[in-house]
Amino acid sequence: MSGLPVSFTSDIADDGATNTIARLDVGPVGFEKAHFEAAESAVREHGLWDSCHGAVMAGSLSVGLGTSTSDVDVYVFVDEVSKGRSHPVRDGIRVDVEQIAVGEIRELSEKFRAFTSIGEERSQTHMDESALKLAVRTHLGAVLKPDAFVQEVRQNLDPLVLRQVLMARSMALLGAYVEDVLGAIEVRDLPTAVCASGIALDMAADALLAACGDVYVSDKLRLRRLVREPRLRGFARTYWDLQYNGLPPDMDPDRIARTVHSRLWLINAIGCACFLEFWEREPAENITFSGVEGHGPVRSPFHVPVRYADGCGLTIRNSAFDVSEDALRLWFLLDGRSPDAVVKEFARAVGSPVDEETSRQILDAIDQFDGQGLIHH
C-alpha cells in the first residue's frame, strides 16, 4: 500500500486476541419471508399500498444486524403525509410504518450526489441525525414495493458520498469532545476526561466503519459492526482494550491520564487514515493502529483532522484551520520516531528524494508545527 502507513502493528492486537474478537461475530440476522409479509400487510391495512410511490424496509434486519426481537421499519413514500408513525403487530412482528413525503426524501437524497461540505457551509455533514438515518436506511433497505421513484432516490444516494459524509461528520462532531477533554485535563478533572474521550473514541470508530463501507448509523450496534468486519478485527481489540479495559482498577491518576491520551492519539490517527488513505477507496486489508512511543516529536493529542470538499484541516479551540494533505501526512508521522525516520518515511510517502534540501524543509515544517502548538510536550 502506498501513501500513509495505516497497516500498523499493535502489542494488544495479537493473533490470539483478534481471533477472540472474531468469535463474537454471530453472523447475519436479516429479513425472512415473514417480515416481508408482515410489512406488506401493515402498509395495505393503512390504505397506502396502491397510492404510494414505493416502500422500503429498513432497520437493523436490513443490514444483517437484527435480533430475535427486532422490528421492521417501513418507509412509505407518499405525495402527502396523512398521519404519523404507527406500530402495528402482524404475526408477532412489530412493523413501524412511517410515511415520507416524496418531496422531502427527493430533496434529501439530492444532497448525497456529491460531497460538498466546506468550512463555511457544513449542512451536509452536520444535518440532523434523523435525516441522516433516513438517507442511509433508504439506501441500505430492502425494497418492499418497487417504483421508479424509489429507484431515482436510491440512485441519488451515492455510496461513496455516504462514506465520505459519515467519515467527515464523525470526525468533525467528535472534535467538541476532544476539546472538552483538554479543558478537563487542564483543571485535573479526570472523570470528565475519561467520559468525553470515550464518546470521542466511539465516534472515531464510526468513521472507521464508514471507511470500510459500513454506513449504518447505530450506537448500540457499533461493537457488533466492528467484530463482523474482518478488516477491523485488529482495531476492534485495541478499541475494546482502550474503551473497556483501559481504566486501572486502582484508579491511579497517571494511568488514567495515559489511557485518555492513548484514546486521543488513536482518534487523530483514525482521522488521518480516513482522510488521506481511505477517502476515495475502502481499505484493502486489515487495519490496526499502534500507540505513540519513542523520543522523537509527537503530534498533539488535542487536535483532530477534519475534511472538506476543498481540502483538510485541524481543529483548534473553538475553530479549525486549513492544512494541506502533505502537512497532515507529516503531522501524522510524528508518533515518537526520530526526526530522521520521519524525514525518510515522509519522503517515501510523497515520492521525494531524501536529500539535504528535502530534509531541511521537513524539519522546518516540524518546527513550525511546534510553534503552532501542534506538538505534544
What attributes does this structure have?
five-stranded mixed β-sheet; 2 domains; three-stranded antiparallel β-sheet; disordered N terminus; Beta Polymerase, domain 2; elongated; 377 residues; Polymerase nucleotidyl transferase domain-containing protein; single chain; 49% helix; alpha+beta; 13 helices
Q: How would you sum up this structure, described in words?
A:
The radius of gyration is 23 Å and the shape is elongated. The protein folds into 2 domains: 15-23 and 161-371, no CATH class; 33-157, Beta Polymerase, domain 2, CATH 3.30.460. The protein is an alpha+beta fold and 377 residues long. It contains 13 helices and 8 strands. A hairpin with a 2-residue loop joins strand 3 (89-90) and strand 4 (93-101).
The parts where pLDDT drops under 50 for at least 5 residues are 1-13
Structural class: alpha+beta
Mean pLDDT: 92
Helix content: 40-55%
Count of domains: 2
What is the CA-CA span between the terminal residues?
32 Å
- Placed side by side, the strands forming the largest sheet appear as 3-4-2-1-5
Organism: Streptomyces mutomycini
Protein name: Polymerase nucleotidyl transferase domain-containing protein
Reconstruct the topology from this structure.
Layout: H1 15-23, H2 33-45, E1 55-58, E2 72-78, E3 89-90, E4 93-101, H3 102-110, H4 129-140, E5 142-145, H5 148-156, H6 159-186, H7 190-211, H8 222-228, H9 233-245, H10 253-277, E6 305-308, E7 311-316, E8 319-323, H11 325-332, H12 339-350, H13 356-371
Parallel strand pairs: 2-4
Antiparallel strand pairs: 1-2, 1-5, 3-4, 6-7, 7-8
